[in-house]
Amino acid sequence: MQLVKMTAYRLTQLLVVALAVSLAVFLLIRLIPGDPVDLLAGFDATPEQRELLTRHWGLDQPLHMQYASFLGNLLQGDMGRSLRSGRAVVDEVVPAYRNTIKLTVVSMTFATVFGILAGVVASTRPYSLMDTAVMGVAVIGASLPVFWVGLVAIVIFAVNLGWFPSAGMGTPAHYVLPALTLGLYATALIARMTRTTMIEVLSTDYVRTARGKGVSERGVVFRHAIKNAMIPVVTVIGLQFGYLLAGAVLTETVFAWPGLGRLVVNSIVSRDYPVVQVTLILVAVTYTVVNMATDLLCEFLDPRLRYD
């Protein structure tokens, strides 16, 4: 019964978020100056041609009717057609979404592994030279702009050294520079959170008891402390996954990565309403699903967090 209530609550939350985002995106995209008909027909089109295109794409209808039509078609699995290319929106969004998910997963894996490792190492020697060095690097990583890091990485590792490709995707080597660039901030944040929570856990009574019983320091860290320290870290990881997914625009632009970031930027410039709407709704739903999965994982790590 508890699981059913929990699932129903989260599904309701997902539907509310999707509906709110769809309405907000639908209205905001239409506040951007410019008329998509100008881009579709060209500025030298005749009034008759413009009127025909306006009727064809349903842009002559009131906003509430346009939104109702969009939402009704979306609920039936029809995402519409791109105003820019005329192709089905699903054919443009799904490949880009897949590419962004791949990049985000690789970036998040890098950030999680190295962030937790750096945080644990720093926490075992608090306020030492090692701790200061790790946290110093973390602060620098969190402070550098993503686009600057990407450009510097291209100049050093792609142009000067020739180790990795500078743009596009296709081979595992194409993932290295954009994944490291995108995941740098998340790595720094996870490292700092891991260090903070580990220091707190390592000072608790049950850890001191374990040490008093002769448990090795490695056993104390990995068998007793790290699981209890992971709850806030897992929350940060879930949030950062959503941030990386939504914030991949700059990285994808710098590295010419064919993902959602580039697609939504090009679609906004061309006033491609259907593509922008579906893309942002998909990002919002994914972000919400990741947060739900994070909540479930936290409840698994600490049963006290489960609903009564």
Characterise this structure:
There is one protein chain. The protein is mostly helical and 308 residues long. It folds into 2 domains: 34-78, no CATH class; 90-305, MetI-like (MetI-like fold), CATH 1.10.3720.10. Helices cover 77% and strands 0% of the residues. It contains 13 helices and no strands. It has helices at 2-29, 36-41, 47-56, 63-75, 89-124, 129-143, 146-160, 173-202, 205-212, 217-246, 249-254, 260-269, 273-301. The longest helix is centred in the middle third of the chain and has 36 residues, at 89-124. It is elongated, with a radius of gyration of 24 Å. The model has no long low-confidence stretch (mean pLDDT 76).
CATH superfamily of the largest domain: MetI-like
Mean pLDDT: 76
Class of the largest domain, according to the CATH hierarchy?
A: Mainly Alpha
> What about the largest sheet?
none
What is the CATH topology descriptor of the largest domain? MetI-like fold
The total count of helices amounts to 13
Order of helices and strands: HHHHHHHHHHHHH
